[in-house]
Amino acid sequence: MYKKELAALRRANRFRTPVMADPDAVDMASNDYLGLAHKRKLFKGACRRVADFPWHAPKSSLFVGGYHPIHRDFEHRLAEANGFEAGVVVGSGFLANLGLIESLVRRGDVLFIDESYHASGMVGAKLVRGRVVTFAHNDPADLIEKLSDVPAGGRRIIAVEGIYSMEGDRVKRDFFEIAEWFDTLMIVDEAHSSGTTGPNLLGVFDHYGIEPDARHIKMGTLGKAYGSYGAYILASEEIVSFLHNRAKPLIYTTAPSLFDIALAHEGFDYIMKKRKKLSRKIERLKAVAEPFAGTMPEGMIVPLPMPDIETTMILRDRLKKMGFEVGAIRPPTVSSPILRVILRTAVKPKRYRELFKAIKRMLHG
Question: Which of 37, 92, 150, 285 makes the best surface tag, with the fewest CB within 10 Å?
Fold first, then answer.
């Protein structure tokens, strides 16, 4: 029934199939930034947390008995560490963004969303009852212009990412000031900045020294730096209560896996304990990437522009044969193809030097 569409994708070099990681390759493709997915001690700690209770699965939604002490304890731990009043765990980052945007933007409200915001937020934006305005990527002036053009009526909500997943750049501090000037709510997707950014590795609020207030909403995933699966939302008690009552991905689904939340809790505690050591490793890796990338990476994502899709796939495959796993990102995920290199503290700096030299040879001879 979909043969023509699949054939078109193949012709355009956009056809996808699941990729199984090679355990013998050097992982420079996954979002396991701090290598926690390989730490057996954290796995065992999560097992003990779950084993302390007579049941090991949530069994139902958060609002029909599925809410568990493991959920509650992690919500409290994250909220306190990040300086927010309250939090709620969610099944995935995609669901968190979808629920946030679909529920918060009511009729008469306006959502201002960065054009490079994650696909989950863009899907949510198509479901809102209010108006949606996109602004140029990480461009404060364009946002100010568009905010000024929209009469103040209902709520205005800005949506940005802490570290953008494809560009690898950090949200500018100006956006926090703009949210204050225009009295807007502000959603910050910290999927790629939590655990990798700031003196305490808590993300961009931490990096900029911004104390969260009632306008701020932070969401993040547990499947990246925290080495697990799932997501969370941090906000004021009022907004979290509103999400409890309006966010469909919270209400109409089974509560998040107890083991995954317990594992994320172990990972978060590990990061807090080791944050100084981890920060030093992160900065060393960024310094290694700087000469090749042309600038010091703001996060742990190094996007390398490629001349075309075919070259992107050829280089990805050649590097794989050399034992390096990197991401080949193609349109429509990005406007132009890139090789996406992830800086991971579990990989030694010398391996990144080898990788970057190999890519340079392949591109320039």
Answer: 150
pLDDT of 282-328, one tens digit each? 999 999 999 988 889 999 999 999 999 999 999 999 999 999 999 99
* pLDDT single digits (tens) 175-189: 999 999 999 999 999
pTM over 0.90: yes
C-beta separation of 121 from 99 below 8 A: no
